[in-house]
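Handover notes (outgoing to incoming on-call)

Open items:
1. Malate permease: sequence verified, structure written out, both below. Nothing else pending on this one.
2. Nothing else urgent.
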Amino acid sequence: MSLGEILQGILSNDKITGAIASSILIILFGYYLRKREVLTKETSKMLSTVILSVSLPALAFKAFMQDINQESLAQGINLLIWGFAIYIILILITKIIYVKYEGDKQSVLRVLTVFGSTTFFGIPIIAAVYGTEGVMYASIFNIAYRVFLYSYGYVKMAGLKMDKENVKKMILNPIVLATFFGMFIWVFQGSLPQVIVGDKAYAFLRLDKTAYWLYKPMTYLGALCSPLAWISIGAKLADISLKEAFTSVDSWFYSLVKVIFVPLVNIVALYLLTVSGILPISFVALATVVIMMATPTATVAAAYAIKFDREALLTSNGSLLSTVLCVVCMPFWIIVLEVIKSLNIFA
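Malate permease structure tokens:
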């Protein structure tokens, strides 16, 4: 199959083109609403709170409401391993990438590169393109992200040892709780007390089968995640000066590393691990990792920089520019992934 035929197949896939168009158009709609002051700055913050405390936890939990098999379990374990491995790798290689920078500037650029907006930006796109399987894999992969963000990221930015309050935030985060509870049900559903539904037995915590009246509200809350996140991203873009960010050489260098180089490293590494049989992963698992790693600056990482007065201006400019670049490049990455899929390298 030629490249032209592959691209034609991608462009004729309504699910892919619909997801790409939806994300871009709704982000622009959020930008328009903020510029016209239909949305206030406080409203944008409230949207973010709803997404992070209600919608994303519901999406993460319900993604695990599915049957388990050896293949999906193996993929989950491999993604969990790779999640911890890639963050260690990024922590090491960012030292080389930003070797020309010194002091706070180097520390900030390294942390901002290691941690992207996987939860707020990545998962909504994954949900739109790859459905519940992608969200489940994303939730598993994100476990390592949470561990390193609230440990390495905090310590590096604060210049302090890990404190009790930050550990509490990491453990009691609604998304973390929903992920671990959902994953527990998914992994141990065969060992939990069973309920007969129709002619088949299910774990009593499989709410999609045993308590649909509880499961259905979660589907509505989870469905809010993508549109609300995209509106919030557009509103955030409207509050920052594009001109200032676009004239910052350091912000451009950081943004290109974050949105282009980091996902490319993941593609190459996972290709080598898969063909060698060391850590084989499926196409959906690969796509999940690439989209998660192609996201812009993590909100929490940016908040650390501003809170501890570590290159706040560079952080703000880098956050804006990487977000704009991500919006532009995300369709490119989805197309690249579909080309990879057509090569049948990943199962």
